[in-house]
Specification:
Oligomer: heterodimer
Radius of gyration of chain B: 21 Å
Largest interface: A-B, 21 and 24 residues
CATH class of chain A: Mainly Alpha
CATH class of the largest domain in chain B: Mainly Alpha
Distance between the termini of chain B: 62 Å
Helix content of chain B: 25-40%
Number of domains of chain A: 1
Number of helices of chain B: 8
Structural class of chain B: alpha+beta
CATH superfamily of chain A: Fumarate reductase/succinate dehydrogenase, transmembrane subunit
Shape of chain A: elongated
Number of helices of chain A: 5
Order of helices and strands of chain A: HHHHH
Helix content of chain A: over 70%
Largest sheet of chain A: none
CATH superfamily of the largest domain in chain B: Alpha-helical ferredoxin
CATH architecture of chain A: Up-down Bundle
Structural class of chain A: mainly alpha
């Protein structure tokens, strides 16, 4: 087995809690950056409707639509992993935290992501 | 050199250091091993046949004492309980346990580990120190229900080495010390409750530093659910009516 495969297996099985922690921190930072961008755009309202519309027009490009889909995935991962951590802190499923991460955050999160990302991609990216 | 029948050649890469832990880099050895042999067997073979100056520690060789804990392929493990075949690779990376000062080669000092251990007052403090009466612990008590499996700590330091928080905070008690405190707090005969809770509630050293990474639980050679002990203590401090100590 290659060194990469050994490491991948390690973080998929034995250290999945650490993988979940890393994902939670990374998605948290991404959402923090998004929050600043969001507030910065909303701030354009102070300049009147024309200024706000001009600011929003920047987000209509296919690139921003793709980033929107990525943001959707980030929110889902962060939220579902947050639910997992809350359950663990409340004493539920301590023994099955690994399964909870892969089934809830990744499994269910993946299904929700696909359910939202596919229509978004078809309508917003391909038709723009 | 021909490899004896039934044995296979493994490449063992060991992080070496001189006395006082001064790094000397990684040294590679080729060793013929049987599949059922352990990492500790490999180290003995290297020491006996290739480099007598290689330093490592061991005692019981059956996973009872915790002396031979070291980093094998980046994971803290007991060398005596880690079969080379289970590693799924012909190259094995061995290093001293992280988060602890290196004395020489694979020998680390457990002093920081036991410094934290002592802070939680690990000694049993009964109401009557002279009592010889046997304790009766009802099967239905919280002590009997919540502590089995948590009493098996062999103080190997693997959890301390794997803890992501410990790697950035010298003040953090670490999972083993917190588990020890949990066991004492669960014991209805013990009296040092307030003193232990004061240490566990400390902002920089106590249970609140744990980020639920589960690294300690993942590497514990005795399969102790250390993260569970920490979570129980957090709940007991936040919601004493629901989580009893």
């Amino acid at each position: 087995m290659s060194a990469f495969a050994v490491q991948a297996r390690k973080y998929r099985r034995q250290f999945s809690g650490m993988t979940a922690y890393f994902i939670q921190r990374t998605t948290g930072l991404v959402l923090l950056v998004y929050l600043f961008l969001h507030v910065h755009t909303i701030r354009e309202l102070a300049g009147g409707p024309a200024a706000f519309n001009a600011a929003l027009a920047r987000f209509h490009s296919p690139l921003f639509k793709l980033l929107e889909i990525a943001l959707f995935g980030t929110v889902i991962l962060h939220a579902l992993n947050g639910v997992r951590i809350t359950l663990l802190d409340l004493g539920a499923a301590q023994g099955s935290q690994r399964r909870l991460f892969w089934a809830l955050a990744i499994g269910l999160g993946g299904v929700i992501f696909l359910a939202g990302a596919i229509p978004l991609f078809l309508n917003a990216v391909l038709r723009s | 050199m021909a490899v004896p029948q039934g044995e296979e050649t493994y490449r063992i890469r060991i992080a070496r250091s001189a006395a006082n832990g001064i790094g000397r880099g990684v040294q590679e050895f080729e060793v013929a091993l049987e599949d059922r042999m352990t990492v500790l067997d490999a180290l003995f073979r290297i020491q006996r046949e290739q480099d007598a100056s290689l330093s490592f520690r061991c005692a019981c060789r059956v996973g009872m004492c915790g002396t031979c804990a070291m980093s094998v392929d980046g994971v803290p493990r007991l060398a005596c309980k880690t079969g080379v075949r289970t590693l799924d690779a012909r190259t094995v990376h061995i290093a001293p346990l992280p988060n602890l000062p290196v004395v020489k080669d694979l020998v680390i000092s457990l002093e920081p580990f036991f410094d934290q251990w002592k802070r939680v007052q690990p000694k049993f403090r009964p109401r009557d120190p002279n009592s010889t009466e046997l304790a009766r612990i009802p099967e239905t008590s919280a002590h009997a229900r919540n502590t089995p499996g948590k009493r098996d700590c062999i103080t190997c330091g693997a959890c301390f080495a794997a803890c992501g928080v410990k790697s950035t905070s010298g003040e953090y008690l670490g999972p083993a010390a917190i588990n020890k405190a949990y066991l004492r707090l669960m014991d209805p005969r013990d009296t040092a409750v307030d003193a232990r809770l004061a240490v566990l509630d400390d902002e920089r050293a106590g249970v609140w530093r744990c980020h639920t990474q589960f690294n300690c639980t993942a590497v514990c050679p005795k399969s102790i659910s250390l993260t569970d002990s920490i979570a129980r203590l957090k709940r007991a401090m936040l919601f004493p009516r629901f989580e009893k100590l």
